[in-house]
Amino acid sequence: MTLPFFTPDVDPGPDFAGLLRRQGRDPETRIADAASHPLTIMHGTTVVAIRTAGGVVMAGDRRATSGNLISHRSMEKVFPADRFSGVAIAGAAGPAMEMVRLFQLQLEHYEKVEGHHLSLEGKANQLSQMVRAHLPAAMQGMVVVPLFAGYDLQRGVGRLFEFDVTGGRYEELHHAATGSGSLHAGTVVKIGYRAEMDPSDAVDLAIRALFEAADDDSATGGPDLVRGIFPIVAVIDADGYRRLEDDEIRRRFEGLLGDLSPSNTQGSADGGARPDQEIER
Amino acid sequence: MSMPFYVAPEQVMKDRADYARKGIAKGRSLCAVSYDDGILFAAENTSSTLRKISEIYDRIAFAGVGRYSEFDQLRVAGVRHADMKGYAYSREDVDAQSLANAYAQMLNHTFTHEMKPMEVEILVAEIGDERAGDELFHILYDGSVVDEDRFSVLGGEADAITARLDESWAEDLDLGAALRAAVGALAGDDRALGADDLEIAVLARSNGRRKFARIEREALTALLG
Q1: Which residue, A29, B93, B152, B224, is most buried by CB atoms nearer than 10 A?
Q2: Which overall architecture, per CATH, does domain B9-224 show?
Q3: Please, which residues have CB within 8 angstroms of residue A18's CB and are 6 or more apart in sequence?
Q4: How far does B171 lie from chain A, in Å, by closest CA?
Protein backbone atom coordinates (compact mmCIF):
# COMPACT_ATOMS: atom_id res chain seq x y z
CA MET A 1 0.00 0.00 0.00
CA THR A 2 1.54 3.32 -1.01
CA LEU A 3 1.06 6.51 0.93
CA PRO A 4 -2.21 8.19 -0.15
CA PHE A 5 -1.02 11.63 -1.16
CA PHE A 6 -3.24 14.06 -3.04
CA THR A 7 -2.88 17.38 -4.77
CA PRO A 8 -5.16 20.01 -3.19
CA ASP A 9 -7.76 19.90 -5.98
CA VAL A 10 -8.56 16.20 -5.50
CA ASP A 11 -7.94 15.88 -1.76
CA PRO A 12 -10.84 14.05 -0.08
CA GLY A 13 -10.40 15.93 3.22
CA PRO A 14 -11.68 14.14 6.31
CA ASP A 15 -14.16 12.02 4.33
CA PHE A 16 -13.15 8.37 4.64
CA ALA A 17 -15.73 7.06 2.16
CA GLY A 18 -14.52 9.68 -0.32
CA LEU A 19 -10.96 8.49 0.24
CA LEU A 20 -11.99 4.88 -0.41
CA ARG A 21 -13.70 5.87 -3.65
CA ARG A 22 -10.61 7.78 -4.75
CA GLN A 23 -8.49 4.71 -4.08
CA GLY A 24 -10.78 2.50 -6.14
CA ARG A 25 -12.51 0.80 -3.22
CA ASP A 26 -16.13 1.83 -3.57
CA PRO A 27 -17.72 1.25 -0.17
CA GLU A 28 -21.33 1.17 -1.39
CA THR A 29 -23.32 -1.93 -2.27
CA ARG A 30 -23.87 -1.93 -6.04
CA ILE A 31 -26.75 -3.78 -7.58
CA ALA A 32 -25.66 -5.80 -10.59
CA ASP A 33 -29.00 -6.35 -12.25
CA ALA A 34 -32.31 -4.84 -11.30
CA ALA A 35 -34.18 -7.90 -12.57
CA SER A 36 -32.17 -10.39 -10.54
CA HIS A 37 -34.00 -12.80 -8.26
CA PRO A 38 -34.38 -11.66 -4.69
CA LEU A 39 -32.07 -13.71 -2.49
CA THR A 40 -32.81 -15.08 0.91
CA ILE A 41 -30.35 -13.12 3.01
CA MET A 42 -29.69 -12.77 6.68
CA HIS A 43 -31.74 -10.21 8.55
CA GLY A 44 -31.25 -8.67 11.94
CA THR A 45 -34.27 -7.53 13.85
CA THR A 46 -35.38 -5.52 16.82
CA VAL A 47 -33.54 -2.59 18.41
CA VAL A 48 -34.81 0.14 20.73
CA ALA A 49 -33.45 3.38 22.16
CA ILE A 50 -34.78 5.34 25.14
CA ARG A 51 -33.83 8.80 26.26
CA THR A 52 -33.06 9.04 29.97
CA ALA A 53 -32.06 11.67 32.45
CA GLY A 54 -28.54 12.56 31.31
CA GLY A 55 -28.22 10.15 28.42
CA VAL A 56 -29.64 7.38 26.27
CA VAL A 57 -30.12 3.62 26.60
CA MET A 58 -29.87 1.42 23.50
CA ALA A 59 -30.72 -2.25 23.28
CA GLY A 60 -31.01 -4.93 20.64
CA ASP A 61 -31.89 -8.62 20.53
CA ARG A 62 -29.39 -11.16 19.16
CA ARG A 63 -31.28 -13.11 16.52
CA ALA A 64 -30.62 -13.11 12.79
CA THR A 65 -32.99 -14.88 10.43
CA SER A 66 -32.90 -16.06 6.82
CA GLY A 67 -36.48 -16.39 5.69
CA ASN A 68 -38.17 -18.50 8.32
CA LEU A 69 -34.93 -20.00 9.65
CA ILE A 70 -32.81 -18.74 12.50
CA SER A 71 -29.38 -18.21 10.99
CA HIS A 72 -27.49 -16.74 13.91
CA ARG A 73 -28.19 -16.61 17.63
CA SER A 74 -25.59 -14.21 18.93
CA MET A 75 -25.49 -11.42 16.40
CA GLU A 76 -24.61 -7.98 17.71
CA LYS A 77 -26.77 -5.10 16.58
CA VAL A 78 -25.77 -2.35 18.99
CA PHE A 79 -22.33 -0.83 18.50
CA PRO A 80 -20.37 2.10 19.77
CA ALA A 81 -20.10 4.64 16.93
CA ASP A 82 -17.43 6.52 18.84
CA ARG A 83 -16.81 7.39 22.48
CA PHE A 84 -20.05 9.33 22.96
CA SER A 85 -22.47 7.72 20.56
CA GLY A 86 -23.88 4.39 19.53
CA VAL A 87 -25.56 2.95 16.49
CA ALA A 88 -28.08 0.10 16.38
CA ILE A 89 -29.14 -1.63 13.20
CA ALA A 90 -32.02 -3.64 11.85
CA GLY A 91 -32.37 -5.10 8.37
CA ALA A 92 -30.16 -6.98 5.94
CA ALA A 93 -27.27 -8.11 8.12
CA GLY A 94 -24.39 -7.98 5.65
CA PRO A 95 -24.86 -4.43 4.38
CA ALA A 96 -25.87 -3.29 7.88
CA MET A 97 -22.63 -4.54 9.44
CA GLU A 98 -20.64 -2.95 6.66
CA MET A 99 -22.49 0.30 7.14
CA VAL A 100 -21.69 0.32 10.85
CA ARG A 101 -18.03 -0.46 10.20
CA LEU A 102 -17.75 2.33 7.67
CA PHE A 103 -19.64 4.73 9.92
CA GLN A 104 -17.34 4.03 12.88
CA LEU A 105 -14.31 4.55 10.68
CA GLN A 106 -15.77 7.67 9.17
CA LEU A 107 -16.17 9.27 12.61
CA GLU A 108 -12.73 8.23 13.82
CA HIS A 109 -11.12 9.30 10.55
CA TYR A 110 -12.73 12.71 10.76
CA GLU A 111 -11.61 13.12 14.34
CA LYS A 112 -8.02 12.21 13.55
CA VAL A 113 -7.69 14.24 10.37
CA GLU A 114 -9.41 17.35 11.72
CA GLY A 115 -8.17 17.06 15.29
CA HIS A 116 -11.62 17.30 16.89
CA HIS A 117 -14.96 15.45 16.99
CA LEU A 118 -17.88 15.89 14.68
CA SER A 119 -20.92 17.34 16.46
CA LEU A 120 -23.66 14.82 17.30
CA GLU A 121 -25.85 16.40 14.63
CA GLY A 122 -22.99 16.03 12.15
CA LYS A 123 -22.65 12.36 12.98
CA ALA A 124 -26.38 11.79 12.49
CA ASN A 125 -26.20 13.53 9.11
CA GLN A 126 -23.26 11.36 8.08
CA LEU A 127 -25.27 8.24 8.85
CA SER A 128 -28.24 9.65 7.02
CA GLN A 129 -26.10 10.09 3.88
CA MET A 130 -24.88 6.51 4.17
CA VAL A 131 -28.43 5.18 4.43
CA ARG A 132 -29.44 7.27 1.43
CA ALA A 133 -26.51 5.97 -0.60
CA HIS A 134 -27.74 2.48 0.20
CA LEU A 135 -31.21 3.15 -1.24
CA PRO A 136 -30.69 1.25 -4.55
CA ALA A 137 -29.80 -1.88 -2.58
CA ALA A 138 -32.72 -1.26 -0.24
CA MET A 139 -35.05 -1.20 -3.27
CA GLN A 140 -33.79 -4.71 -4.03
CA GLY A 141 -34.84 -5.91 -0.61
CA MET A 142 -31.63 -5.23 1.31
CA VAL A 143 -33.15 -2.67 3.61
CA VAL A 144 -30.99 -1.25 6.39
CA VAL A 145 -32.60 0.97 9.02
CA PRO A 146 -30.39 2.19 11.85
CA LEU A 147 -30.99 4.04 15.08
CA PHE A 148 -28.41 6.55 16.19
CA ALA A 149 -28.11 7.89 19.72
CA GLY A 150 -25.51 9.72 21.68
CA TYR A 151 -24.58 12.21 24.30
CA ASP A 152 -24.43 15.74 22.89
CA LEU A 153 -21.35 17.26 24.52
CA GLN A 154 -22.31 20.79 23.47
CA ARG A 155 -25.84 20.65 24.87
CA GLY A 156 -25.20 18.23 27.72
CA VAL A 157 -28.13 15.93 26.89
CA GLY A 158 -28.76 12.54 25.33
CA ARG A 159 -30.30 12.62 21.84
CA LEU A 160 -31.62 9.95 19.52
CA PHE A 161 -32.34 9.74 15.82
CA GLU A 162 -34.47 7.45 13.71
CA PHE A 163 -33.97 6.89 10.00
CA ASP A 164 -35.97 5.60 7.08
CA VAL A 165 -34.69 3.79 3.97
CA THR A 166 -34.40 7.02 1.99
CA GLY A 167 -31.97 8.45 4.51
CA GLY A 168 -34.64 10.57 6.18
CA ARG A 169 -33.41 11.55 9.61
CA TYR A 170 -35.86 12.14 12.42
CA GLU A 171 -34.91 13.19 15.89
CA GLU A 172 -37.04 11.55 18.57
CA LEU A 173 -37.46 13.26 21.92
CA HIS A 174 -38.40 10.19 23.96
CA HIS A 175 -37.83 6.79 22.42
CA ALA A 176 -37.52 4.91 19.15
CA ALA A 177 -37.61 1.34 17.89
CA THR A 178 -36.88 -0.27 14.55
CA GLY A 179 -36.88 -3.75 13.03
CA SER A 180 -39.49 -6.49 12.68
CA GLY A 181 -40.38 -6.54 16.39
CA SER A 182 -40.48 -2.76 16.66
CA LEU A 183 -44.27 -2.58 16.85
CA HIS A 184 -44.38 -4.70 20.01
CA ALA A 185 -41.18 -3.37 21.51
CA GLY A 186 -42.15 0.20 20.71
CA THR A 187 -45.53 -0.20 22.36
CA VAL A 188 -44.02 -1.55 25.56
CA VAL A 189 -41.55 1.32 25.67
CA LYS A 190 -44.29 3.82 24.91
CA ILE A 191 -46.42 2.61 27.83
CA GLY A 192 -43.56 2.34 30.31
CA TYR A 193 -41.78 5.55 29.33
CA ARG A 194 -41.61 8.50 31.68
CA ALA A 195 -39.85 11.81 31.08
CA GLU A 196 -36.33 12.05 32.57
CA MET A 197 -36.27 8.33 33.36
CA ASP A 198 -33.61 6.92 35.57
CA PRO A 199 -31.10 5.04 33.32
CA SER A 200 -31.50 1.85 35.36
CA ASP A 201 -35.30 1.91 34.91
CA ALA A 202 -34.80 2.55 31.20
CA VAL A 203 -32.54 -0.51 30.96
CA ASP A 204 -35.27 -2.62 32.58
CA LEU A 205 -37.85 -1.14 30.24
CA ALA A 206 -35.70 -1.88 27.18
CA ILE A 207 -35.19 -5.47 28.33
CA ARG A 208 -38.91 -5.90 28.89
CA ALA A 209 -39.65 -4.40 25.47
CA LEU A 210 -37.33 -6.87 23.76
CA PHE A 211 -38.81 -9.73 25.75
CA GLU A 212 -42.34 -8.82 24.67
CA ALA A 213 -41.22 -8.39 21.06
CA ALA A 214 -39.61 -11.84 21.15
CA ASP A 215 -42.84 -13.20 22.59
CA ASP A 216 -44.86 -12.10 19.58
CA ASP A 217 -42.38 -11.75 16.72
CA SER A 218 -40.67 -14.93 15.51
CA ALA A 219 -37.72 -12.99 14.10
CA THR A 220 -36.82 -11.44 17.45
CA GLY A 221 -34.79 -13.54 19.87
CA GLY A 222 -35.59 -13.70 23.57
CA PRO A 223 -33.13 -14.32 26.37
CA ASP A 224 -31.37 -17.64 25.82
CA LEU A 225 -30.75 -19.03 29.29
CA VAL A 226 -29.44 -22.34 27.94
CA ARG A 227 -26.63 -20.79 25.93
CA GLY A 228 -26.31 -17.70 28.07
CA ILE A 229 -27.13 -15.25 25.26
CA PHE A 230 -28.78 -11.98 26.27
CA PRO A 231 -29.68 -8.77 24.48
CA ILE A 232 -26.98 -6.16 24.13
CA VAL A 233 -27.75 -3.11 26.21
CA ALA A 234 -25.63 0.03 26.21
CA VAL A 235 -25.83 3.19 28.26
CA ILE A 236 -24.48 6.43 26.78
CA ASP A 237 -24.04 9.44 29.03
CA ALA A 238 -21.49 12.11 29.92
CA ASP A 239 -18.97 9.34 30.68
CA GLY A 240 -19.36 7.89 27.21
CA TYR A 241 -20.60 4.64 25.72
CA ARG A 242 -20.72 1.66 28.07
CA ARG A 243 -22.02 -1.80 27.23
CA LEU A 244 -23.59 -3.60 30.20
CA GLU A 245 -22.16 -6.94 31.26
CA ASP A 246 -24.06 -10.11 30.35
CA ASP A 247 -24.32 -11.00 34.04
CA GLU A 248 -26.15 -7.79 34.77
CA ILE A 249 -28.58 -8.37 31.91
CA ARG A 250 -29.12 -11.93 33.17
CA ARG A 251 -29.96 -10.64 36.65
CA ARG A 252 -32.37 -8.10 35.27
CA PHE A 253 -34.01 -10.74 33.10
CA GLU A 254 -34.44 -13.05 36.03
CA GLY A 255 -36.14 -10.22 37.88
CA LEU A 256 -38.42 -9.63 34.90
CA LEU A 257 -39.24 -13.34 34.57
CA GLY A 258 -40.14 -13.39 38.25
CA ASP A 259 -42.58 -10.54 37.68
CA LEU A 260 -44.04 -12.24 34.63
CA SER A 261 -44.45 -15.77 36.00
CA PRO A 262 -48.07 -17.04 35.84
CA SER A 263 -48.45 -17.09 39.60
CA ASN A 264 -47.60 -13.43 39.69
CA THR A 265 -49.62 -12.24 36.75
CA GLN A 266 -52.72 -14.38 37.24
CA GLY A 267 -52.45 -15.31 40.90
CA SER A 268 -53.26 -18.97 40.15
CA ALA A 269 -52.32 -21.51 42.80
CA ASP A 270 -50.53 -23.87 40.42
CA GLY A 271 -47.78 -24.68 42.88
CA GLY A 272 -45.13 -23.00 40.68
CA ALA A 273 -45.06 -19.84 42.73
CA ARG A 274 -42.04 -19.12 44.85
CA PRO A 275 -42.96 -18.57 48.49
CA ASP A 276 -41.10 -15.28 48.81
CA GLN A 277 -43.07 -13.81 45.94
CA GLU A 278 -46.31 -14.95 47.48
CA ILE A 279 -45.45 -13.01 50.59
CA GLU A 280 -44.49 -9.95 48.59
CA ARG A 281 -47.85 -9.93 46.88
CA MET B 1 17.94 24.70 -27.08
CA SER B 2 20.05 25.93 -24.21
CA MET B 3 21.99 23.41 -22.15
CA PRO B 4 21.77 23.68 -18.36
CA PHE B 5 25.07 24.10 -16.55
CA TYR B 6 26.56 20.87 -15.31
CA VAL B 7 26.34 20.46 -11.56
CA ALA B 8 27.85 17.41 -9.90
CA PRO B 9 25.19 15.15 -8.29
CA GLU B 10 27.09 15.29 -5.00
CA GLN B 11 26.71 19.05 -5.05
CA VAL B 12 22.99 18.86 -5.85
CA MET B 13 22.34 16.48 -2.96
CA LYS B 14 24.44 18.49 -0.58
CA ASP B 15 22.64 21.72 -1.49
CA ARG B 16 19.28 20.09 -0.97
CA ALA B 17 20.30 18.54 2.33
CA ASP B 18 21.62 21.90 3.55
CA TYR B 19 18.40 23.57 2.52
CA ALA B 20 16.27 21.01 4.35
CA ARG B 21 18.44 21.08 7.46
CA LYS B 22 18.31 24.85 7.61
CA GLY B 23 14.52 24.77 7.41
CA ILE B 24 14.29 22.16 10.17
CA ALA B 25 16.70 24.01 12.43
CA LYS B 26 14.42 27.06 12.39
CA GLY B 27 11.73 25.30 14.42
CA ARG B 28 11.88 24.00 17.96
CA SER B 29 12.81 20.46 18.86
CA LEU B 30 10.80 17.51 20.10
CA CYS B 31 11.53 14.25 21.85
CA ALA B 32 9.87 10.90 22.52
CA VAL B 33 10.83 8.95 25.60
CA SER B 34 10.04 5.37 26.53
CA TYR B 35 8.57 4.96 30.04
CA ASP B 36 7.05 2.10 32.04
CA ASP B 37 3.54 2.37 30.53
CA GLY B 38 4.47 3.30 26.96
CA ILE B 39 5.97 6.23 25.11
CA LEU B 40 5.82 9.91 26.08
CA PHE B 41 6.10 12.70 23.52
CA ALA B 42 7.18 16.19 24.46
CA ALA B 43 7.40 19.13 22.10
CA GLU B 44 8.13 22.75 22.63
CA ASN B 45 5.05 24.33 21.14
CA THR B 46 3.27 27.46 22.26
CA SER B 47 0.29 26.86 19.98
CA SER B 48 -2.53 24.71 21.30
CA THR B 49 -4.06 24.22 17.86
CA LEU B 50 -1.17 23.65 15.46
CA ARG B 51 -0.08 20.28 16.76
CA LYS B 52 3.26 18.59 16.30
CA ILE B 53 2.21 15.32 17.92
CA SER B 54 -0.86 13.38 16.90
CA GLU B 55 -2.68 10.10 16.71
CA ILE B 56 -2.38 7.88 13.66
CA TYR B 57 -4.01 4.65 14.77
CA ASP B 58 -4.80 2.54 17.83
CA ARG B 59 -1.16 2.00 18.83
CA ILE B 60 0.61 4.42 16.52
CA ALA B 61 1.45 8.08 16.92
CA PHE B 62 3.14 10.65 14.74
CA ALA B 63 5.38 13.58 15.57
CA GLY B 64 7.00 16.07 13.26
CA VAL B 65 9.28 19.08 13.32
CA GLY B 66 10.15 21.60 10.63
CA ARG B 67 7.69 23.20 8.27
CA TYR B 68 4.17 22.73 9.69
CA SER B 69 2.27 22.51 6.42
CA GLU B 70 4.56 19.78 5.18
CA PHE B 71 4.59 17.50 8.20
CA ASP B 72 0.87 17.99 8.66
CA GLN B 73 0.36 16.80 5.09
CA LEU B 74 2.45 13.75 5.96
CA ARG B 75 0.42 13.20 9.14
CA VAL B 76 -2.88 13.20 7.23
CA ALA B 77 -1.42 10.83 4.63
CA GLY B 78 -0.41 8.54 7.50
CA VAL B 79 -3.89 8.57 9.01
CA ARG B 80 -5.29 7.71 5.60
CA HIS B 81 -2.77 4.95 5.03
CA ALA B 82 -3.50 3.39 8.43
CA ASP B 83 -7.30 3.71 8.22
CA MET B 84 -7.36 2.27 4.70
CA LYS B 85 -5.20 -0.64 5.73
CA GLY B 86 -7.32 -1.34 8.80
CA TYR B 87 -10.45 -1.22 6.66
CA ALA B 88 -9.07 -3.49 3.93
CA TYR B 89 -7.53 -6.03 6.33
CA SER B 90 -7.96 -5.76 10.09
CA ARG B 91 -7.03 -3.38 12.86
CA GLU B 92 -4.24 -5.69 14.02
CA ASP B 93 -2.57 -5.54 10.62
CA VAL B 94 -1.82 -1.85 10.86
CA ASP B 95 1.78 -1.40 11.95
CA ALA B 96 4.27 1.40 12.31
CA GLN B 97 6.94 -0.27 10.24
CA SER B 98 5.02 -0.34 6.98
CA LEU B 99 3.96 3.24 7.60
CA ALA B 100 7.55 4.28 8.27
CA ASN B 101 8.61 2.61 5.01
CA ALA B 102 5.88 4.39 3.10
CA TYR B 103 7.00 7.73 4.58
CA ALA B 104 10.61 6.96 3.76
CA GLN B 105 9.78 6.19 0.15
CA MET B 106 7.73 9.33 -0.17
CA LEU B 107 10.39 11.58 1.40
CA ASN B 108 13.15 9.98 -0.62
CA HIS B 109 11.20 10.49 -3.82
CA THR B 110 10.56 14.13 -2.99
CA PHE B 111 14.19 14.65 -2.03
CA THR B 112 15.59 13.33 -5.30
CA HIS B 113 12.91 14.25 -7.81
CA GLU B 114 11.21 17.44 -6.74
CA MET B 115 12.31 21.03 -6.92
CA LYS B 116 12.50 21.34 -3.18
CA PRO B 117 12.98 18.71 -0.46
CA MET B 118 10.56 18.62 2.44
CA GLU B 119 11.88 20.55 5.42
CA VAL B 120 10.72 18.00 7.93
CA GLU B 121 11.89 15.33 10.28
CA ILE B 122 9.27 12.91 11.53
CA LEU B 123 8.81 10.16 14.07
CA VAL B 124 6.48 7.18 13.83
CA ALA B 125 6.04 5.39 17.15
CA GLU B 126 4.17 2.25 18.06
CA ILE B 127 3.71 0.56 21.42
CA GLY B 128 3.43 -3.17 21.91
CA ASP B 129 1.88 -5.16 24.75
CA GLU B 130 5.27 -5.13 26.47
CA ARG B 131 8.03 -2.57 26.54
CA ALA B 132 10.06 -4.85 24.23
CA GLY B 133 7.45 -4.38 21.53
CA ASP B 134 7.80 -0.57 21.46
CA GLU B 135 9.14 0.90 18.23
CA LEU B 136 10.48 4.34 17.33
CA PHE B 137 11.13 5.09 13.67
CA HIS B 138 12.92 8.35 13.10
CA ILE B 139 12.68 9.46 9.46
CA LEU B 140 14.78 12.25 7.98
CA TYR B 141 14.05 14.74 5.18
CA ASP B 142 15.85 12.53 2.63
CA GLY B 143 13.95 9.39 3.53
CA SER B 144 16.59 7.71 5.66
CA VAL B 145 15.06 5.72 8.51
CA VAL B 146 16.62 5.14 11.90
CA ASP B 147 15.11 2.59 14.26
CA GLU B 148 15.65 3.94 17.76
CA ASP B 149 15.37 2.52 21.22
CA ARG B 150 14.88 4.24 24.62
CA PHE B 151 14.25 7.72 23.19
CA SER B 152 14.31 9.74 20.01
CA VAL B 153 15.05 13.41 19.44
CA LEU B 154 14.00 15.45 16.41
CA GLY B 155 14.95 18.94 15.33
CA GLY B 156 17.85 21.36 15.06
CA GLU B 157 19.16 20.95 18.59
CA ALA B 158 18.95 17.16 18.56
CA ASP B 159 22.56 16.57 19.57
CA ALA B 160 22.45 18.69 22.71
CA ILE B 161 19.08 17.25 23.77
CA THR B 162 20.22 13.69 23.13
CA ALA B 163 23.26 14.28 25.33
CA ARG B 164 21.04 15.56 28.16
CA LEU B 165 18.59 12.66 27.80
CA ASP B 166 21.48 10.20 27.85
CA GLU B 167 22.14 11.38 31.37
CA SER B 168 18.62 11.66 32.70
CA TRP B 169 16.89 8.68 31.07
CA ALA B 170 16.64 5.41 32.98
CA GLU B 171 14.85 2.10 32.49
CA ASP B 172 11.21 2.01 33.73
CA LEU B 173 10.69 5.66 34.54
CA ASP B 174 7.14 6.44 35.60
CA LEU B 175 5.08 9.03 33.72
CA GLY B 176 6.05 11.99 35.90
CA ALA B 177 9.75 11.16 35.90
CA ALA B 178 9.80 10.58 32.14
CA LEU B 179 8.01 13.88 31.61
CA ARG B 180 10.45 15.79 33.77
CA ALA B 181 13.41 14.14 32.05
CA ALA B 182 12.03 14.99 28.61
CA VAL B 183 11.11 18.57 29.47
CA GLY B 184 14.43 19.12 31.27
CA ALA B 185 16.30 17.89 28.22
CA LEU B 186 14.31 20.14 25.87
CA ALA B 187 14.82 23.17 28.09
CA GLY B 188 18.50 22.78 28.93
CA ASP B 189 20.10 24.35 31.98
CA ASP B 190 19.47 28.03 31.32
CA ARG B 191 15.67 28.12 31.16
CA ALA B 192 12.52 26.38 32.36
CA LEU B 193 9.53 25.32 30.25
CA GLY B 194 6.02 25.64 31.70
CA ALA B 195 2.75 23.97 30.74
CA ASP B 196 1.97 26.78 28.27
CA ASP B 197 5.17 26.20 26.31
CA LEU B 198 4.64 22.48 25.90
CA GLU B 199 2.67 19.98 23.91
CA ILE B 200 2.63 16.60 25.64
CA ALA B 201 1.03 13.32 24.63
CA VAL B 202 1.42 9.64 25.39
CA LEU B 203 0.86 6.25 23.87
CA ALA B 204 -0.05 4.37 27.03
CA ARG B 205 -0.58 0.63 27.34
CA SER B 206 -3.18 1.20 30.08
CA ASN B 207 -5.45 3.16 27.71
CA GLY B 208 -8.28 1.36 25.89
CA ARG B 209 -8.22 0.50 22.20
CA ARG B 210 -6.96 3.93 21.23
CA LYS B 211 -3.74 4.27 23.19
CA PHE B 212 -3.05 7.87 22.27
CA ALA B 213 -3.91 10.61 24.75
CA ARG B 214 -2.91 14.21 25.19
CA ILE B 215 -1.91 15.50 28.59
CA GLU B 216 -3.65 18.83 28.79
CA ARG B 217 -2.81 21.89 30.79
CA GLU B 218 -4.10 21.07 34.28
CA ALA B 219 -2.82 17.50 34.43
CA LEU B 220 0.44 18.68 32.92
CA THR B 221 0.98 21.39 35.52
CA ALA B 222 0.38 18.82 38.25
CA LEU B 223 2.84 16.36 36.71
CA LEU B 224 5.55 18.97 36.17
CA GLY B 225 5.33 19.63 39.90
Answers
A1: B152
A2: 4-Layer Sandwich (3.60)
A3: A12
A4: 31
Q: Kindly determine whether residue B98 and residue A1, on different chains, have CB atoms separated by under 8 Å.
A: yes
A7, A29, A45, A166: which is the annotated catalytic residue? A45
Structural domain boundaries in chain B? 9-224
The span from the CA of B101 to the CA of A247, in Å, is 46
Distance CA(A137)–CA(A143), nearest Å, equals 7
Rounded to whole angstroms, the Cα distance separating A118 from A155 reads: 14
Q: Using one digit for the tens of pLDDT, what is the confidence trace for A18-70?
A: 899 888 888 876 666 655 666 778 888 899 999 999 999 999 999 999 988 99
Closest-CA distance of chain B to residue A115, Å: 8
Q: How far apart, in Å, are the Cα atoms of A184 and each of A187, A214, A256, B10?
A: 5, 9, 17, 78
Name the residue among B42, B43, B57 with its Cα closest to residue B175.
Answer: B42
Would you call B101 an interface residue with chain A, using a CB distance cutoff of 8 Å?
no
Beta strands in chain B (DSSP E): 30-35, 38-44, 53-57, 60-66, 120-126, 135-139, 145-148, 151-154, 198-204, 212-214
In chain B, residues 38-67 whose CB comes closer than 8 Å to chain A: 49, 51, 54-56
Structural domains of chain A in order of their starting residue, each with its CATH number: 40-261 (3.60.20.10)
Each residue's pLDDT tens digit, B202-213: 999 999 999 999
